Amino acid sequence: MTQEIKEVVWITGASSGIGRALALRMAKAGYRVAATARRQGELEALAREADGHVTPVAADTTDAASLQAAVTRIEETLGPIGIAVFCAGTYQALMGAELTAAKARPLFELNFMGTVNSLEAVLPGMLRRGKGRIAMVASLAGYFGLPTSAVYGASKAALINMAEALRPDLARSGIAVQIVNPGFVKTPLTDKNEFPMPFLMDPADAAEAFYRGLHSDRFEITFPRRFSLFLRVLQMLPYRLSLALTRLTVPKEKPDSATRVSRVA
Ligand SMILES: NC(=O)c1ccc[n+]([C@@H]2O[C@H](COP(=O)([O-])OP(=O)(O)OC[C@H]3O[C@@H](n4cnc5c(N)ncnc54)[C@H](OP(=O)(O)O)[C@@H]3O)[C@@H](O)[C@H]2O)c1
Q: Of all atoms in ligand 1, which is nearest to the CA of residue 43?
């Protein structure tokens, strides 16, 4: 392990997938990493794999009080959080015919409000110190509404919009805000997908791109580039064309919620 940098990094959603791979990459670079998720056992396994350079701090991001306690513990034991990365999130496919508030609310509670809870926990300290970096993980699905992803995509579009609003605002206080828009990355979240996923990335490659982005001044960190470009073009087309294209991706059969697979990143 190289030890050139000693800043404290807090990563939520670190017990698996992208967050876990990033925690290992940051630890390898010499950062002191605090890893948050609900599964203590998975966080402890991560800490062992990182030779103790990762500290498990279990918390539920939908529970603001549990997050506040986690941040207090991290700052008392490791020091002030310099970089906060909010990865905790999930996907659930939902077709229009089955859309209810009861199904939409948990997705927004975790993907959007969980991120707001995390911001609320870390921001006062960063504002006091006049420095910090915050990266929020959204998705390329937040660029444009995609069939089966009405609620997931909306929760990610909300994150993109919030990050755009916070970037110039918090820059005045010395805090850099970044948005992270991944395409398909092989993780437990996408393992249930049964369709071919274009440009599917390995978590370690995703973590490398993520790591490089955190060390840049770019607002958006996105990978893989080619898929991101493709969806940017879709976003810029007239609705007549873009909606005709996304219509082609509507599942032919009425999906059964028990067996349906996710179709977007
Ligand atoms: N994989 C992709 O292709 C892809 C593409 C675009 C965007 N993303 C986004 O990237 C992020 C990470 O996804 P992933 O693919 O790495 O999925 P993953 O492997 O399922 O990881 C999700 C992480 O979130 C944590 N989490 C879930 N609910 C939580 C809660 N209430 N409190 C605290 N932690 C919670 C999980 O840990 P516990 O279960 O232990 O709590 C886990 O560590 C998500 O926001 C996802 O939307 C993923």
A: 40
pLDDT value of position 251: 86
Partners of residue 81 on adjacent β-strands? 8
Cβ neighbours of 26 (radius 10 Å): 27
Instruction: Please report, as a single letter, which amino acid is at residue 257.
Output: S
| Average pLDDT over the chain, rounded to an integer | 93
Which residue spans within the chain are E strands per DSSP? 8-12, 32-36, 54-56, 81-86, 132-137, 175-182, 220-223
Residue 223: phi and psi, rounded to 5, are -155, 150
* Catalytic option among 143, 152, 211, 239: 152
The pLDDT value given to residue 5: 52
Nearest CA owner, ligand 1 atom 29: 88
**Region of residue 225 (left: phi > 0; alpha: psi -120 to 50; beta: else):** alpha
Is 215 a residue whose pLDDT tops 50? yes
CATH number at residue 192: 3.40.50.720
What average pLDDT does range 230-242 have in this prediction?
96
Q: Has residue 91 been placed in a domain?
A: yes
Confidence of residue 90 (pLDDT cuts 50, 70, 90): very high
Q: Let me know if residue 210 belongs to a domain.
A: yes
